[in-house]
Design goal:
The protein is built from ten helices and ten strands. It is α/β, with parallel strands linked by helices. The chain folds into two domains: 1-97 and 188-273, P-loop containing nucleotide triphosphate hydrolases (Rossmann fold), CATH 3.40.50.300; 109-186, no CATH class. The longest helix is centred in the middle third of the chain and has 20 residues, at 137-156. The structure holds adenosine-5'-triphosphate and magnesium ion.
Length: 273
């Protein structure tokens, strides 16, 4: 298992708490008669790894979908970087600094690792289509810069050996890593990871835990992480929010949450996948 984080990112060396990067306030979301999220509030502080846990169907993925603009809640607000966010679409959320990975890998299977990660930069391309099409002048310089950043990410994730491999041919664990690479290519302030270790063996989980910690520590990226493996959650997260049937039943540092009787009853000690 990876090492414990000794100094939680939400408490700075001077003892002051880090500022709130994103606040979810009284958010409710229903699909027809199904209440996926009921009046949930929590915040994510700058620089922390914030885990979101709970049994199947608890509303975890729905919550990430609200945060990245895919779903619009019927009630409540999302405040990001101090501003109450208006209704926005996922690409607008991405431009504002929120990137994500998906519970089921969502890559272009016929495209190479390199091109998949490059696709994460598309949103950031500024020069207009005319220049892009001619591959001249400003667009060419911009493309060189994008390629340089993508190569850095490939180095960082130790996937040089598969840069030209179509991702559909890769084992599942590596596909998850490529998907992380594509999200990193957006240079997010807030990275949303939906079960990045689901279906992995122990070694792959350890690798992924290390990359998540490195992203957090080296790039200073704030991370919201949905994960069922409690060992991983206890090891790498600073604070944990627990959902059950769309309600929040626990919120705090991992050791406090682990001792919470409601959380134990609803979730811990029950096998998950
Ligand atoms: N698009 C949708 N349409 C209708 N119901 C939905 C939709 N998305 C989610 N739900 C329902 O909302 C509830 C919460 O689902 P959600 O996927 O957010 O749970 P989860 O905590 O991510 O679960 P899991 O651990 O299985 O991934 C479930 O009852 C689910 O069936
Ligand atoms: Mg889910």
């Amino acid at each position: 298992m990876v090492a414990m984080v000794d100094s939680p990112a939400d408490v700075r060396p001077d003892g002051a708490e880090a500022p709130v990067l994103l606040a979810v306030q009284n958010v409710s979301l229903a699909f027809g008669g199904v209440k996926a999220i009921s009046d949930i509030s929590f915040d994510i502080r700058e620089g922390e790894i914030r885990a979101i846990i709970g049994p199947n169907g608890a509303g975890k993925t729905s919550m990430l979908n609200v945060i990245n603009g895919f779903y619009h809640p019927q009630e409540g607000t999302i405040t990001f970087q101090g501003k109450v966010r208006r209704r926005m679409r996922p690409y607008e959320a991405a431009r504002s600094g929120i990137a994500r990975t998906f519970q089921n890998v969502a890559l272009f299977r016929g495209m190479t690792t390199l091109d998949n990660i490059m696709s994460g930069r598309t949103l950031m391309m500024r020069k207009n289509f005319f220049w892009q099409a001619l591959r001249l002048g400003p667009a060419l310089n911009e493309e060189i810069e994008h390629r340089r950043r993508v190569e850095e990410i490939i180095d960082f994730l130790e996937i040089e050996h598969i840069r030209k491999t179509p991702v559909g041919k890769l084992p599942y664990g590596l596909q998850k890593r490529v998907e992380l690479g594509r999200a990193l290519a957006m240079e997010p302030r807030l990275l949303l990871l939906d079960e990045p270790m689901a279906g992995m063996n122990l070694e792959e989980k350890e690798d992924m835990s290390r990359f998540i910690l490195d992203v957090n520590q080296q790039f200073g990226t704030t991370i919201a992480l949905i994960e069922h493996d409690m060992g991983v959650v206890m090891d790498i997260s600073d604070r944990v929010v627990v959902l059950d049937y769309g309600k929040k039943i626990g919120d705090g540092p991992p050791d406090v949450v682990r001792a919470n009787q409601d959380v134990i009853d609803a979730y811990l000690g029950v096998p998950h996948e």
